[in-house]
Design brief:
It is a single chain. The chain has about 325 residues and is α/β, with parallel strands linked by helices. It has two domains: about 140 residues, no CATH class; about 100 residues, Endonuclease, Chain A. The strands form three sheets. A five-stranded mixed sheet has the order 6-5-4-8-7. A hairpin with an 8-residue loop joins strand 9 and strand 10. Helix 4 crosses helix 5. The protein is elongated. The N and C termini lie far apart (about 55 Å). The relative contact order is 0.08.
Length: about 325
């Protein structure tokens, strides 16, 4: 497959303490540089040692240095996951291929765990081993790759086949949904990925998730909440329910049909976005517009409501409304 262009990122760029010649490389690599890259930019080995000794640069593993300014906890989680992926690629050289969750992180797939282990594979026989928290995986026979920022990454089909069996069920569904939503692969290619995953340890508990994957899911929280409802036996009738008849309608996250053109809608709000004052006002105005039509009954949830709260609340509400013929 061809190279995949980098998407614009909403995250602020990582701050780095490097010469100008090295800064652009370090920023793409989330603050990481190799000793070879530093030398090419005119940083001598003696200078590298001094920077490390003074705490301005930090050694990640043999041949890889962290030139960020500031503590790691100031780096957004998405960037931290990409940093983990870069650590493996830089440590194992230009032939290394980012695989599994590392590949998904570099492909900007949402829904991954908060922290991931760097995972790379090397083609052909290799006597190198995992080290310093970097996982060297076996190279899958027939694996195809793409390029991201000039480095090799397992293509989305292979990356999903490698990662999904090892993820929790809700995160597995989230990365499948996001991969379709971002059009990293087509539904037919998702079927190929599922076939590539068969026989891997842990895949048996994920078979339903491959079938549930849906490009309409707008966020990992929506995927988490949907799976909660599926497991409770109340799958939503519609994802991203249109709330009006305009060409570009507002949409509700999950919808259950009550009859007579009436719907129960579950809105699942991410804390980072929807806790901002402007977003709170917009959400309130939006909900008022929905309820005022008389067609929608709205339940609102946050990331604090994922462990059964959503499904049980929806189930109780559906039972009550259906007993009353869809009215309150």
């Amino acid at each position: 497959m061809s190279a995949l262009p980098l998407d614009p990122d909403d995250e602020p760029p990582v701050r780095v303490d490097t010469p100008d010649e090295l800064a652009s490389v370090a920023i793409v690599q989330v603050g990481l540089v190799t000793t070879e890259q530093a030398r090419a930019a005119g940083v001598t080995d003696r200078r590298i040692s001094t920077l490390v000794r003074r705490g301005r640069w930090r050694r990640v593993t043999r041949g890889v240095l962290d030139a960020r300014i500031g503590p790691l906890h100031e780096v957004p989680w998405n960037a931290r996951r990409r940093r983990a992926a870069w650590a493996g690629l830089l440590a194992y050289g230009p032939e290394a291929v980012a695989v599994g969750t590392s590949a998904l992180a570099l492909l900007r797939v949402a829904g991954l765990p908060t922290t991931i282990t760097s995972e790379v594979a090397l083609p052909g026989a290799s006597d190198r081993r995992s080290r310093d928290g970097l996982r060297l995986r076996q190279f899958d026979d027939g694996m195809t790759t793409i390029e991201v920022a000039g480095r090799l990454v397992a293509d989305p089909r292979w990356a999903l086949a490698q990662a999904v069996p090892e993820l929790s069920r809700r995160r597995a569904l989230a990365v499948l949904d996001c991969s379709l939503h971002r059009k990293l692969l087509r539904p037919s290619e998702l079927l190929v990925a599922h076939e590539l995953a068969r026989g891997r340890r842990g895949v048996a508990r994920t078979h339903l998730l491959w079938e549930l994957a849906d490009a309409r899911a707008g966020s990992p929280l929506e995927s988490f909440g949907r799976l909660d409802c599926v497991d409770a036996g109340i799958p939503p009738d519609v994802l991203q329910l249109p709330l009006d008849d305009s060409p570009y309608p507002e949409r509700g996250d999950l919808g259950w049909y009550l009859g007579d053109d009436r719907w129960l809608v579950a809105e699942i709000d991410g804390e980072e976005v929807h806790s901002a004052p402007v977003a709170v006002y917009a959400d309130r105005a939006r909900q008022n517009r929905m309820v005022s039509t008389g067609r929608f009954i709205v339940l609102r949830f946050t990331n604090q409501d994922l462990d059964g709260v959503i499904s049980q609340t929806v189930l109780r509400t559906l039972r009550r409304l259906r007993r009353r013929g869809g009215t309150e």
